[in-house]
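During the no-cost extension, the postdoctoral fellow (Dr. R.K.) reprocessed legacy sequence entries with the updated structure-token encoder. One reprocessed record is reproduced below for audit purposes.
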Amino acid sequence: MKRLFDIFFAVVGLVVLAPLGLLLALAVKLADGGAMFYGQVRVGQFGKRFWIWKFRSMVVNADKLGPPLTQEEDRRITAIGRFLRRTKLDELPQLWNVLVGEISFVGPRPEVPRYVDQYTPEQREVLRLKPGITDMASMLFRNEQELLKGASDLEGFYLRHCLPKKIELNRQYAERASLRQDVWIILQTLCPYWVAVLSVYSLCLAVSFWATYQLRFDFRVTSQGAAQFWRGLPWVVGLQLAALVWLGQLRGLMSYFSLPEMKRTLWALAWGSMTGIVSQSGWRSSAPVNWPRGSRAILARTGRRGRSSLSLATIRGPGTNGATTFRWWGCRSVS
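Re-encoded structure tokens follow.
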């Protein structure tokens, strides 16, 4: 069943992603004139060696200029290679390895022979599994280059700290391996943690905006008001997310939350809201807003030391019950 799954989706992936693969191959070729693909000998199931393929992300003959491992600041990585590694698109040619049966979509990442030679007899049990493009260790060590950054003994650090943990994770996977678990690992690989964080924040911002809008109209939003809400939702959520990313507040769902972080979060949300108002400064609402009797709203722009700010004030006085059509940068009464 797993083999049929691999064959079907490998064929689909090779056909559907062929145009993207062609563009990436041309980008690698035009970057420095070197080869488009890079092949390396890896150790597969039962210790059988095979060639694994990737889009080349390092300079030509990089394997002769340093160890198989790379750090974040490794100068052997090309400009296009950094993009390919960050997006994992350099792994795309391995769909061919999946199709011919050398690896699977999910399984322990195959290591180079020089590292496999240092396995203990207990660790060599992992060679009974067919290697794969991704696994639980790949997700845990997604930022392996950053982890290895600054290590004086690069290979020693990897062999002592990283490799044993990877093998242990692969042994845990083998104990409960199933097609359902493979699909879940693939989804987690394609949808990394920061995407989940971004989705949760987006949902919270959208719900809070909806609640605020409902309160504004006493939970009696008209069809025109609802249309206005949906027009403004992308601006509100998008700008506030951009501000949160800019201030580094989207690092995780659970973290220690200090007063400085609270200040940055409030500033980011305020900045996003104000930017939305400024970006739509020329837009006018076509929906009438019914203001309470005896009140008038004024939206004014003030400046101080070269900076612009917005202020909202409500002035009580003789007013009307008529409709008020408003626009950003000001409100005017239409009797």
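The mean pLDDT is 77. The beta strands are 37-43, 49-55, 104-106, 132-134, 289-290, 295-304, 307-316, 323-324, 326-327, 330-331. The remaining legacy entries will be reprocessed before the final report is submitted.
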